[in-house]
Amino acid sequence: MNNIKNQKTWKNKFKKKSKRKIESIEEVSSIVLSDDSYGIFSQTLTINDLTPFQLKMINKNNQQTIPFRIILPPSISPSSVAIQTTQGSNNKPYGINYELTAFIGQRIDDNQPASSTVTIVLRKLTAGPKITQRPLQPIVESIKKTINLPCYYGELFIKASIEKPLYYHDESVCVSIVLDNLCQLPVRKLQVAIVQIAEVFVLTKGTYRLTVDKHFCKVNLPQAGEEQWKYTTILNTNLTDNILKHGVALDGYIRQEKNWLASSTVLNLSENFKECLEMMQNINKNVNNSTDLVIKANKELHGIVISYCVRVRCWIGISRCSLYIPFLLMQPEKESEAGEVDNHVNCTNNHTLHVDIVQIHPSDLKVTNDELVEISNDNKSTV
Length: 383
What we know:
Keywords: Sensory transduction. Helix content is about 20%, strand content about 35%. It has helices at about 1-35, 50-60, 270-285, 285-300, 370-380; strands at about 40, 70, 80-85, 95, 100-105, 115-125, 140-150, 155-160, 165-170, 170-185, 185-200, 205-215, 230-235, 250, 305-315, 320-330, 345, 350-360. Helix 3 (about 270-285) packs antiparallel against helix 4.
């Protein structure tokens, strides 16, 4: 009997503690909903704040719709990145994605019934400047290779350039190369490639490199003592079936939508990171080490950092030298049409973060086929 009483009292204590936990969860959620700078807004929205898609839904369903807006904080919400899995695999791509779940219930901690729950996959993109405002100055890099062999000696100068520092998806990259072979050996082979570099800080840390497009040159290469040898080639940045393989980083892989390579990650130091930098400088007394620590912390917040470069490799004799030209690969900022309200969130002076609906999961929902077709046609509107 004593054991039974002890078990009952223990269960009562456990129930009381669980109720306290639920109340604390409700308090935290209410704070997030009432946040002034970031969070979910529904009651404070006016007609001018609504998107055309929201106005269409309100006119169709009258008072049954509740429009809302979601603002994601830019400092702790990285862009969507998906690492492509092997072909034929049914597993979800590894990376960063966002899902918006809306359900109807009595309390916020209730179980989500499948018949009253809708899940929407969001793809957060980092857009670059408009096409008319992007920089057009060329980028030039050079390297010198010294050959010091018993029978052969000399120097090899490589100079490579691209037209602009920022390219948009599906644009071609024109690479110009100038070689000065002041060596007694001829150049055997030349390779030009676009390399995607993904620094992963989620679960496991590592750096992965993938060749997007490459070009070999083995004919009419500079011989010994030849100067001012020029060569130009064009590389593609579009997503083709040849590079749609395991390991390529995409801007959120969606089978029903057009996919492209992951955009370059732009690291912006916010005010919190500036304070962190000052604190690190006071501790380490070294500006370079402090800056590296702050940039590393910013990269860890992004989860996956994407960068691109043009790699030029030259083989001469038994040695090889490489040259790298970094550049940005992004999407242009969408031009706002006449009469359309721009509802995007300006996070920095030069970049705008977009939150686009790219897919809807209508599974376990009791709706008609006509409604699903209409929703899928309108799901490209912004929240």
